[in-house]
Design goal:
By secondary structure, the protein is mainly beta. The protein has two helices and 40 strands.
């Protein structure tokens, strides 16, 4: 069974005027006014559905001067019994479910009370001593319990002309007007008790905020004045005046002193804070400001719509140490609008030296990715369809190695990547020999990865293939054997350094073989001198020309670096693609890749980027 919360239960007293009516032999009907003062201890509030009690309740009955002579006719001394005293209930019941309770259940003795007919009033207490506990039950809804004084029935033991006489009287709240012979209604409310949910227990301690510095630095001989503190509580409010400070500071002696600030709220929750006071020998004035170090980039670039997260900063001081937590940042960044924004980071040390640095945040419009100059690259088997692509696009026939360029009048065959001289790729260490290859051939220096193109005037350095890793579709990877499925991104190229096989990575199918860059089986003519040793297919592979020997080199002339007669002629095509490339991919920019292939490309017909 629920028990009512009776915290702060108080004693209350309320007076209600009553009219008592009785029929007295030989006298007739008597109507007497009296005051009934009910006193009880009751709770400030109760919870819905909870039992509670009116404790130590008693009543004091008083008859005024107009009623004393009438009482004297038949009832003197006053004595008898209260047989019924109802308390009427709203939003509450007795423990047996009734909307009233009889506090005189079983009868209450009226103490014998003598009086004189000339007394201004006569009073008695029921019960004569102590009080009565009345148990009640609150309603199930929040609101208020209203307790009203109800009907009282008494049996008075009177005396009429010397003869004993029992007089029954019924009393109800009201005032009898003798002039009009009417009974006026009155408010019979005795008590109002709120029905409400209990306030949750206060378990939150106060918050103490120290004024001034912590730690606080002083020099020997300085005067110490406690900066103090403030304290607030979520229930009790300002508790600053209740703060107790313990500890002391002796500024005549260097050292570290601790002051403890303590406060408690009305629920007993305690809070403490400590301040460290450091007394040090007199020192030279500190004039060195802290040092602020920005984290992240400065300037920091963002695109419109990006989320800005301040990388922050650190601050150190030669005396105070780490001041990072004291850095104050001013300024703001609106990434919805392009522009240049400035954030200022400021910090001061205990000596008042201030340092500040600024970070520039540049918010720029996001540039749409544009295909490189030269349009798009497509590939397929057979010649390109006339309706494919636009002017400036390239197309690779992977069956024949033919490369087409689309002009205003349609697709035009430009060259063949597998054909004879003029479309070969040579490799070697160092710059190419002047007499090596023909116009249109390429040469890759495997030590520096410099790429050369031969024109009518000789070899020209056109770029270096060691570039940084690019985005999807802009990288070239080199290794031995077929490429691993996890290597690269869609649109990247891969060349097998042993076979010269060229692959491209498709977003759906992974690495797809395109063609072999080994060059023609026909003898090469990249040899110098009058001997003009020709490349061939013999097992010795000592030809100077770019042959397709059994070693599977990409136009390489053999193991003597292209020498035809004891390595004297340097007309060979050089070494195979470098072994070092098998361990570290060469990442080419897309522009250099397309230069290597003799054109410009971006996408493929099978749409690498889907």
């Amino acid at each position: 069974m629920n028990k009512g919360f009776e915290v702060h239960a108080v004693k209350q007293s309320t007076s209600v005027p009553y009219v008592c009516i009785s029929n007295v032999p030989l006298i007739g009907e008597l109507k007497l006014n009296m005051q009934v003062k009910v006193t009880a201890t009751l709770p400030d509030f109760v919870t819905p559905g909870a039992e509670f009690a009116l404790e130590d309740s008693f009543s004091e009955v008083t008859f005024g001067k107009d009623e004393v002579p009438l009482l004297n006719l038949a009832v003197n001394p006053i004595k008898g019994e209260v047989q019924k005293f109802h308390l009427d209930l709203e939003n509450a019941t007795s423990t047996d479910g009734k909307n009233f309770v009889n506090v005189a259940e079983g009868g209450l003795t009226i103490p014998e009370t003598p009086f004189a007919s000339t007394d201004p009033s006569v009073s008695f207490r029921v019960p004569a001593d102590g009080g009565i506990d009345v148990k009640l039950k609150a309603g199930n809804e929040t609101g208020s319990i209203i307790i009203k004084a109800g009907e009282i029935e008494t049996l008075l033991n009177g005396n009429l002309f010397g003869n004993p006489l029992d007089i029954h009287a019924t009393c109800n709240p009201g005032i009898y007007n003798k002039d009009t012979d009417e009974i006026e209604e009155v408010d019979a409310t005795l008590n109002v008790i709120p029905i409400q949910e209990p306030t949750p227990a206060d378990t939150t301690p106060p918050v103490i905020t120290l004024n001034g510095d912590n730690p606080l630095y002083l020099n020997v001989g300085d005067e110490f004045v406690d900066p103090g503190a403030t304290a607030t509580d979520d229930v009790d409010g300002d508790l600053t005046e209740q703060i107790v400070v313990t500890g002391s500071v002796d500024t005549s002696k260097p050292g570290e002193y601790i002051l403890t600030y303590t406060v408690s709220d009305s629920a007993g929750n305690e809070a403490t804070e400590t301040r460290t006071v450091i007394v040090r020998e007199v020192q030279e004035p500190d004039t060195t400001p802290p040092v602020i170090t920005l984290k992240g980039d400065n300037p920091l670039y963002l695109n419109v719509g990006d989320e800005f997260v301040d990388p922050g900063a650190t601050a150190t001081d030669d005396v105070d140490g780490d001041l990072t937590e004291q850095i104050v940042v001013t300024g703001s960044v609106d990434t919805s609008k392009p522009g240049e924004y400035t954030l200022t980071y400021t910090v001061s040390d205990s000596a008042g030296n201030t340092a500040s640095v600024t970070r520039t945040v540049i918010v720029q419009e996001k540039e749409e990715e544009q295909p490189p100059a030269g349009g798009s690259w497509y590939y397929g088997e057979g010649a390109p369809d006339e309706d494919l692509g636009s002017t400036g696009d390239l197309y690779l026939d992977i069956a024949s190695g033919d490369v087409y360029v689309k002009q205003e009048n349609g697709w035009v065959l430009a060259f063949n990547m597998i054909g004879g001289d003029g479309s070969k790729i040579f490799t070697g260490t160092g710059a190419p020999a002047a007499e090596l290859g023909k116009a249109g051939d390429y040469y890759l220096d495997t030590s520096a990865y410099d790429l050369y193109l031969k024109d009518e005037s000789g070899w020209k350095l056109i770029g270096n293939l060691k570039g940084a890793k690019g985005d999807d579709g802009t990288s070239w990877h080199v290794g031995e054997g077929k490429p691993d499925s996890s290597l690269g991104r869609p649109g990247d190229f891969y060349i097998d350094a042993k076979t010269g096989d060229l692959y491209i990575k498709d977003s759906e199918n992974g690495w797809v073989f395109l063609l072999s860059l080994k060059g023609s089986d026909e003898p090469g003519s990249g040899n110098p001198g009058d001997d003009e040793p020709q490349g061939g297919n013999d097992d010795e592979q000592n030809n100077g020309g770019p042959s397709n020997g059994n070693t599977g080199n990409n136009g390489s002339g053999g193991n003597d670096n292209g020498g035809a007669d004891n390595g004297q002629n340097q007309g060979g095509s050089g070494n195979p693609l470098p072994d070092t490339a098998t361990r570290e991919p060469l990442l080419l920019s897309l522009g250099l890749l397309l230069t290597l292939l003799g054109g410009a490309g971006w996408l493929l017909r099978r749409r690498i980027f889907q």
